[in-house]
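CHAP domain-containing protein
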Amino acid sequence: MPYSGVPGTPGSPETPISPLSRRELRAQREAAEAQSDTAVSTPVSRDTLLSVEVAVPRAEAVGIDVASFVARPSRLNPVAPSQAPRGISRPVRTSRIRRPLKIAVTLLAIPGMLLTAGLPAYAFSPGSDAAATSTRVAGEAQGVTVASGVTAITVARDGFTATTSEELAQRDADALSAKQAEEAAASVTRSASANFAVYTVRAEGDDYPWFDQATDNQGGGLSPLGYYYRECVDFVAWRLNRDAGSTGSPWNYTWSNLTPSGGNASNWANAWAEHGWATGDAPVVGAVAWFNYNHVAYVQSVNSDGSVVLEEYNWNSSHAYHTRTVSPSEVPLFLYPPA
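Structure:
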C-alpha cells in the first residue's frame, strides 16, 4: 500500500532530490553574507559626507560617472538600489559606501602624482647672471666653471729682511769691542779713581766763552787761561775748568799749573807724567784725547760700540768748534782729568 507520508521517513519510498538551481545557490550565499554582516545600518559621519561632496565633483571633472559606478550591480549586490523591492529593508554596509570614495580619491591622486613627477626641477640662485655653471664629465667627476664676475682672492705676503752671517759677525765684533772698552774704562776707573775725576756726559755744543776773539795769526793775545784764543789747548783747558766747577776767575787750571813746561799740545803728555796724573788707552768722559801731531781734544762721550765722540777747536787750523767720532785705537793716549 502506497504511503503518502513525508519523504525520508522510514518506510517511505525515496523521492529523488532535484539539484538546486544556480539562482537558489546564489540566494543562499547572499543570505549567509547578510547574516554575518551587522543588521543595523552604520551612520555616516559629517566628515565622510563632506569628503564625498568634495570627491564627487573632482571625479566628475576627470570623467568618472559616479552615479553609474554606485548603481552598478556587484557580485554581492546583483540588484541595484533602485531595483530593490519595496518593503524589503536591507542593511547598509559602510564598506560599500566608502568604496566609491576611495576609488575616486585614488583616481584623483594618480594624475596628481604623474603631473608632479613630470614637472621640471628648477633651482633659484640670487644674481643668476653671475651664477657658476657645472658640467658633468666622464668618470662621474664634476668640473666647475667660475663666472668672470667673481672677485679673485688676493694672497698677501708680508715682506721681511734676513740678517746675513756677515752682519751677525759684525754685530758680535762690535759688541765685543764695546764690552772690552767698558771693561777697560772700568778697570782704569777702579785702579786710578783716586788720581782723576770722573764726570758725567753733557750735551754737545760750543760753550767756549771766547769764540769771537782774534786768534794769534790775527794779532790776538792770550786768554785768561794763558793760552792763545781759539786754539785747541785753550778750549780743552776751558773744559777741564768747567768740569771742575770753575767758569771764572780764580781758575783751577791755567797754563802755569797745567802745562808749565810749555803751552803746545805736544807737551801735554809729558806734563801729565810730571804731575803724576793718570793716563791710559781706555776712553773716559772728561778725559783729554792726546794726538802726537800736536793736537788735543775733549772726550764728550763713549758710545756703546766703543767709539769715542770728540769735541775740539782748531781742527785742521779752522780756529772753530768741531766734533767727530773716532775709534779708541786712533787716539795714542788718553789724559785723565786731574783729581
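Residues 165-192 form the longest helix (28 residues).
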